[in-house]
Amino acid sequence: MFHRTQRLFLRPAWPEDWEAIYRGICDEGVVRNLARAPWPYEPEHARDWAKRPLDPSSPTWLITLADSGELVGCIGIDPHDGEVEVGYWIARAHWAKGFATEAGQAVLEIARMMGHARLVASHYVDNPASGRVLRKLGFLPTGKTENRMSMGRGEKVQATAYVLNLDTTESLRAA
């Protein structure tokens, strides 16, 4: 599955992408905010991730610049505790450029086309930038925090939970 936005091209990862993935994610400042990426992040982690089988019910996309193909990060939707969760990471060189929000808007469109009515997301409490992205996308805080595992930190960390009902007009706010 592919998707084009104004500045970005979202596409599946291919095995030959492993080096670009490794360069983008091999940063403790990135990995510490992810649930499933270990630290230290090794080349074999990127190789294994890039060659994993694609699952159409749980799509993940590389976020690339549409004009150059440069890797910006990764975004996807995945089952989590009976819900459908949005998760993403952005390489440090691309922080604070609006790419997470732009890619997130694309994924919300795809989730609607897939028939999802509700999405969840969370961010670690010490990563407020991710919370700002989620709110720009229309996610609303649930008022709950939960301990979520961060493999990069090697421990559970407090995370703020969000929800987005895709079938309401309130959730269609523009960023």
Automatic annotation (TrEMBL):
Q: Which PROSITE patterns match?
A: GNAT (PS51186)
Residues crossing the lipid bilayer are none
Instruction: Give an example GO molecular function.
Output: acyltransferase activity, transferring groups other than amino-acyl groups
Instruction: Report the SUPFAM superfamilies cross-referenced here.
Output: Acyl-CoA N-acyltransferases (Nat)
- Judging by the UniProt lineage, the source's domain of life is Bacteria
The answer to whether UniProt assigns keyword Transferase to this entry is: yes
Ranges for the N-acetyltransferase domain?
Answer: 8-167
Keywords in alphabetical order, please.
Answer: Acyltransferase, Transferase
Q: Which family does it belong to?
A: Belongs to the acetyltransferase family. RimJ subfamily.
The name this protein goes by in its record: GNAT family N-acetyltransferase
